[in-house]
Amino acid sequence: MKFKLFLLIPFFFLGKSTSEETFFWGQNGHRATAKIAENHLKKRVKKKIDKLLNGQSLAFVSTFADEIKSDRAYSKYYSWHYINMDLHETYATTAKNPKGDLVTGINECIKILKDKNSTDEDKSFHLKMLVHFVGDLHQPLHIGQREDKGGNTVQVQWFGTGTNLHSVWDTKMIEEWNMSYLELADNAKDLTKKQIKAIEAGTLVEWVDEVHELTKKVYSSAKVGENLRYRYSYDHFGTVRDQLQKGGIRLAKILNEIFC
């Protein structure tokens, strides 16, 4: 009996790990978005950012906002990674989180970066956070339902292994594609100037509502317990790539406006 109990323990923890909450693109997703943004920055903006980050790339700092989650000193920023919205709502009509949300976070970062009285230390910190938050904005389940924590409690399988819908969109499809973030960025679609302008157009809130239209499609894309495999990636990985690219282009637009 003791031997059987011993065997069950690792399976218990394995099962638990599949339902852990994740509120971010995976590392490769964030780095790809940041690298795409770097490709759209003006030269003088690149120089200012390089100085502020002491030579670190946007891709390198893009995961910073996740790395600090384990430090309670930064707990005030946790809710800034997502927005809770019912599927029928727009950002204007949804009840706002009193602790703030993605819109709060992005706007606060922009405000501090534009403030001439901000220290370089504050600017560096909020630049790192901004890179991450704009990436998060373009993951459709970051603008998900409160009751399932943005798809984190929607249990599915990925090639026969238990996980959740949020994780599939954060990391699983990207990992299955088996490309580095540089390969993902280098293989982004070739867009015309007109197409880039169309992506850049709009306000932050309009971008939120745009992404939320995708959120609705993601929720309807899988049933609870469904075993998602190659066909799911075939149907939806193109959307993932598009969102990574849109996030990069829009991040570059914000940074070009801040640092010009």
In the residues, how many domains can be counted? 1
- Return the CATH topology: P1 Nuclease
Number of helices: 12
**Poorly predicted tracts of residues:** 1-23
CATH architecture: Orthogonal Bundle
Number of strands: 3
Spatial order of the strands forming the largest sheet: 2-1-3
Helix content: 55-70%
Proportion of beta-strand residues = under 5%
Largest sheet: 3 strands, mixed
Text of the CATH class: Mainly Alpha
Q: How far is it from the N-terminal to the C-terminal residue, by CA? A: 69 Å
Note down, in words, how this protein is organized:
With 260 residues, the chain is mostly helical. The protein has a single domain, classed as P1 Nuclease (Orthogonal Bundle), CATH 1.10.575. Helices cover 58% and strands 4% of the residues. The chain is built from twelve helices and three strands, in the order H-H-H-H-H-H-H-E-E-H-H-H-H-E-H. The chain has helices at residues 2-17, 27-39, 43-52, 58-61, 64-67, 102-114, 120-137, 165-177, 181-186, 193-200, 204-219, 230-259, and strands at 155-158, 161-164, 227-228. Helix 2 crosses helix 12 and helix 7 packs antiparallel against helix 12 (230-259). This is S1/P1 Nuclease. Keywords: Disulfide bond, Endonuclease, Glycoprotein, Hydrolase, Metal-binding, Nuclease. It holds the Pfam family S1-P1_nuclease. It comes from Tenacibaculum todarodis.
